[in-house]
């Protein structure tokens, strides 16, 4: 299994992924809005993902976010998705959304929960490091 950034080569797999959720009447989380763009606007969704990480142009009230496909390496099948907000706003908080194919089974659910937890720990460390770096920078400016 590996995380990959979505691109045009994943379009058919992405449609099959969302179709499976619809067929099972399952809730879709962590998909960066993919379900709202399919079946006809995959390229528009890719453009939305590019805007989601464009730090200089994030609209007020939003935070940058990045979306990955979780892909089975043997056959390239998308088995999950994860969307990570890269900053904190009071009304949003930190957030990691994810989804797993409805037919993924309990083992896949456990694996993806571990992955989500790893992302969360990594973000917590990154946020802490950022705060420490800012504090040191402020101290250096005073002295």
Notes on the protein architecture:
This protein is an alpha+beta fold. It has a single domain, classed as Aminopeptidase, CATH 3.40.630. Helices cover 46% and strands 16% of the residues. A four-stranded antiparallel sheet has the order 1-2-3-4, with helices on both faces. It is globular.
As for the number of domains, it is: 1
Averaged pLDDT: 78
Under the CATH scheme, which architecture would be assigned?
3-Layer(aba) Sandwich
- Structure classification: alpha+beta
- Name the strands of the widest sheet in spatial order: 1-2-3-4
Query: What is the CATH fold-level name?
Result: Aminopeptidase
The helix count comes to 4
Secondary structure topology:
Layout: E1 2-4, H1 11-23, H2 34-37, H3 42-52, E2 65-71, E3 78-85, E4 96-100, H4 105-142
Antiparallel strand pairs: 1-2, 2-3, 3-4
